[in-house]
Amino acid sequence: MNNLTHPLWFNIKLSGQITASISHEIKNCLAIIQEQSGLLEDLLFLQKEGKPLSIEKIEEIINSISRQARRANLIVQNLNMLAHMPDQEQSSINLNKLLNLVISTYNRISKMKNVDLQLKTQSDKTIITQPLILFNLIVSILNDIIAKDPPKTIYISTNEHKINISPCYYISNNTKEILKFLKLDYTLDKEKQTIFITLT
């Protein structure tokens, strides 16, 4: 499979995009922890030199390290969820959890374009699908929206039978290929600037 325009390559590219974004977030957490650890070492060195030790400053540093450790743990949990999505060809997944995972992992990418992501309504609907491919579909649509004319906010909403994403008035051929692969019907309403994806 040497054709880099093949849909499989596009899905690999999407997964790589999200993985790279997650790795940057983890790196940022580690950089802050390393910086704060260095400050703590400096304070301890000064204390050994006879300078007074500020308990308030130590507490501030410890709290900062703790916050970043918790943040990194959540990021790794998201990465772990993504890593296990391809475990089965088809599996049952909660739609709300999937969309929240999309928003959590895509948030850094959207903020680089000054775009906020908002999940307007949530559904406890459980669907049977290939979770990673559906995840990649939502990411691909978000990429399409941001690539054309980035809005201030992208809204994702759900009801019993549909995923709705707006504003959206264009989707790429790659996105269409994923929709076709998942056998999902969709309507691109240019007047409402919304794509309605019908879930099976």
From TrEMBL:
<keyword id="KW-0418">Kinase</keyword>
<dbReference type="InterPro" id="IPR003661">
    <property type="entry name" value="HisK_dim/P_dom"/>
</dbReference>
<feature type="domain" description="Signal transduction histidine kinase dimerisation/phosphoacceptor">
    <location>
        <begin position="14"/>
        <end position="88"/>
    </location>
</feature>
<dbReference type="Pfam" id="PF00512">
    <property type="entry name" value="HisKA"/>
</dbReference>
<protein>
    <recommendedName>
        <fullName>histidine kinase</fullName>
        <ecNumber>2.7.13.3</ecNumber>
    </recommendedName>
</protein>
<keyword id="KW-0808">Transferase</keyword>
<dbReference type="GO" id="GO:0000155">
    <property type="term" value="F:phosphorelay sensor kinase activity"/>
</dbReference>
<dbReference type="InterPro" id="IPR036097">
    <property type="entry name" value="HisK_dim/P_sf"/>
</dbReference>
